[in-house]
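Entry 14. Ran structure prediction on the chain below.
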Amino acid sequence: MRELIKALVVEDSDSDYGLLEEYSKELSFPISLDRASSVSESEKKLNDNTYDIIFLDLHLDDSEGSDTVKTVKKYKENSKINNETNIVVMTGTDDWAMAKETLKIGAKDYLKKEDIDEKSLARCINYAMYHKVMPDRKKKGFFGF
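Output, structure tokens:
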């Protein structure tokens, strides 16, 4: 059985968080979601906890667009979290220029909220975890191939 994956979800919409929570229950591997409703709240969470992956909404009350990724990336680098923990951007807009910008500045993946389902969530998590440096887990053993 795979180890528990710990994810921070930075999302201000209750309904969007609820959908992500529902899809995560259908995954074939264990995942624990922790929520921050703002970028500023994510700083405290990142200082107090360790996560394997960060799901980040680009449009929050206290941050917008690529600045959101830059800020959370800075918080992550200044906290006790492993700097190899990947950021996955989630957004409700269809702005591919923004997608490219967030990937350039450090996000590992970009998901449109309307396209998120169990399958896309599993793919995204597996991709992010595969690219995370995990000294205590061998990639081959963690993923079974």
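Confidence is low (pLDDT under 50) at residues 138-145. Will compare against last week's run tomorrow.
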